[in-house]
Amino acid sequence: MGEEAAGKPPVVILREESTVTSGTAVQEKLIAAARVFADLLRPTFGPRGLDKMLYKTDGTTAITNDGAKIIAELMVKHPAAKMLVSMAETQENTCGDGVTGTLLMCSELLMEAGRLMEKGLHPLVVHSGYERAREVSLEKIQTLCIDVDVKDKETLQSIAATSLTGKGAEGAIKTLSKLVINALMSVSRIEEDGTHRCEAEDVTMHKTGKGSITDSQFVKGIVIRRRILLDALPTHIQSPNVAVLNCDLAPRKQIRSSEIEIEEVEQLEAFLEMEETLRDKLSKSLIATGANVFLSSGEIDKGILHRLMRSGCFVVGELDDRELRNAAAATGARIVEFAADLEETDVGQAGELKTERRPTTDKVEDIIRLVGCINPKVVTCEIGGANDLATEETIRAIHDALRSTSLTIQDGRILHGGGATHMACALAIREAAEREPGRERLAMEAYARALEIIPISLAKNAGADPLDRILELRAAHRSGSESAGIDSSGKVGQTDARVSATTLESAIEAASETCGSMLRIDQVISARGD
Question: Taking the complete model, does pTM exceed 0.85, yes or no?
C-alpha cells in the first residue's frame, strides 16, 4: 500500500505533455495577448495613423492601416488572441468600421482589470462593475445622439469623410465621399414599413488600373471583366434590352447517351440539318423577346453566337453567380434557367452598353459596361489608380465608408467623433460611480479610464502630449462642451468628425462582452504543453 501511494496515481486524466495554468498566471496570459494587439494597432489609429506593410506567406504584399485587414492577415496562435480576432471579425461583419477602436478599448479594459486584480479585487467584481459602466455608457450615448435627415447629403458626406480620413484615400476625400453618397442614394429605398433600406453590399467595386484616385467615378450600373467572344460583336448599344441566363446558350442536350448508326450520306446531312434547325429556332425565339444583350453563366454555342451577332446582338458567357445576380439587379431582368424559356417579361433595360477592348494576355480581360440603368438595385464605383496596392487600400477605405454611412441612413443617428463621445461617456460613468457603495465602483472608474484610450491614442498619434490633451478634454467636457474632441492636429476643440451611433454602440458592447468572457477564465489547459 505504501509503495503504491508513493508512486504515480493509477488514473491519468491529462496527457503528460499537457499543462495547466491557474491563478494570476492566467490573467497575465490574457493581458499579454491584449497588450500585443494594442501595441500593434495603436499607431494606425486616427487621422494621423501610420500604415503597416504586410508580407504574406504566399509572397504578396499589402499596405494598410485598416484594423480588419491587419487582423485578418495575422496567423494567430494564442487562444486569448483568437477571442480578440473573433471580436474584430464580428465588428467588421456588423458595422464594417470601428475595428481598431474596438480592439483598443477591449485591450485597455483587460489591462485595467489586471491592475485591479493585482490589488485584490475578484474577477467577477470587476466584471460586475464593467457591466454597470457599459449600461451607463449606452444610456449616455442615447442622450448624445443627433438625428439626421437621410436627405441631408452634407451630413452624410461628413460620416463618409470620417471613415476615409487616415486611410490611403485621404488625398481625395471630397471626391470619394461624394461618390459614396451618390452610390448609396441610388440603391436606397423605403420599405413598406417606412424604414430605409440601404445596403453597402449593393455597391460593387471595379479597379480601372489607370489614372489616379481622383479619377474615380460612380457608375449607375455594372462593370464586367470578360473576354469578348467575337471582334464583330457590337461595341456600343444605346438603350439595350438585357437578358440574364443561368445556363448554356445552346440547344438543349440529351440527358441520356445514345449511338446513331448512319448508313447513307443523306442521313448524316439530315442529322446535321436538324441541329442547325434547332439553333435557328432557339436564336429566333431569343431575338423575338426583344433582347439584344445576352449575359450567360454557361458556354455559348458558336452557331447561335454568330446568328445573334448578325442580328446586332451582344453576347457574353461564363459569368459567375455574383456577376449574374448583379446584372439582374442593376437592369431589372429576371434570371432564367433555360434559354428556351426566356420571355419578353424576363428582359431588363439599361441606358447604354459600352465595351473596351484590351490587349490579349493571360491576365487582362476586356471591359463590358452596362450603365445608365433606370432604377438599379446594384451600382458600381470605378476606382482609379495605377498602383494596385494603393487602389486596394482605397477600396478598403471606401468599403468602410459605405458601411458606416449606410448604417447612418438606416438608423438616422450620429455622434461626434474625435473621442468626444468616449470622453462624455467616461465622465458619465465617473458620476455614476460616485453613487456606488461597493467595490464595483473601482471597476467603473477603470472602465472610464479605458474609454479615454481613444482620445489618448488620437493625441499621441498626432504628436501631442497625451496627458495634457486628456486633461484639457476633461475640463472642456466638464464645462459643458460635450462635442469637444481631439482634432487632426492633436488639439482640443470642435471637430468635423462624425460617426454612426450604431457603430459606436456595437464597439462598446463587443469590447465589454469579450473582456467579460476573458475575466471569467480561471484556468488555461493546453494539450500541446505551451
Answer: no
